[in-house]
Amino acid sequence: MPNTRTNQEWLHDLNASGSLQEAAIAELRVLLLRAALYFFSRNLGDFNGMDHNEVIQRAEDCAQDALIAVTNHLSDFRGDSKFTTWAYKFAINIAMMTARRERWKDVSLDELSPPAKVISLNGRCKTSQMGSLPNNLPCGLK
After folding, report:
1. pLDDT digits (tens, 9 = 90+) for 80-122
2. N or C: which end of the chain has fewer CB within 10 A?
3. What is the 3-state secondary structure (H, E, C) of 7-56?
4. How confident is the model at residue 1 (pLDDT cuts 50, 70, 90)?
5. Domains of the chain by range and CATH?
6. What DSSP state is assigned to residue 128?
7. 3-state secondary structure 57-114
8. Contacts of 116 (CB under 8 A, 6+ apart)
């Protein structure tokens, strides 16, 4: 198990250079990967038809994206929580977005809603499901 760093140590090490920064980034990446894998393990239904290696690769991608986001937002960390808790949020949010995209990737929006009824009157359209839009838009613009 890696050494437990304080919030100040995380910030210092991630903003440092050389081997100190490399070690902090490697440790943070492992923590973010664990967070993404944990989320995916609780939401395996979103990855139906995907083999184990593909799910692992998605988690790796999430961890990498989260690592970039965390390093880009280091100055936003206020210290209200542990640094690792704050960083986990990035991994979990990115994993959630990935799972959501995977869950809905084969679903067409046209299949989810009934077709709108369009009536053309003198070059103008009236759409029954577009109640708040102006009624004088030309056909094709609604």
Report:
1. 999 999 999 999 999 999 988 877 676 666 766 666 665 656 6
2. N
3. HHHHHHHHHCCCHHHHHHHHHHHHHHHHHHHHHHHHCHHHHCCCCHHHHH
4. very low
5. 7-107 (1.10.1740.10), 109-142 (no CATH)
6. T
7. HHHHHHHHHHHHHHHHCHHHCCCCCCHHHHHHHHHHHHHHHHHHHHHHCCCCHHHHCC
8. 127, 128, 129, 130
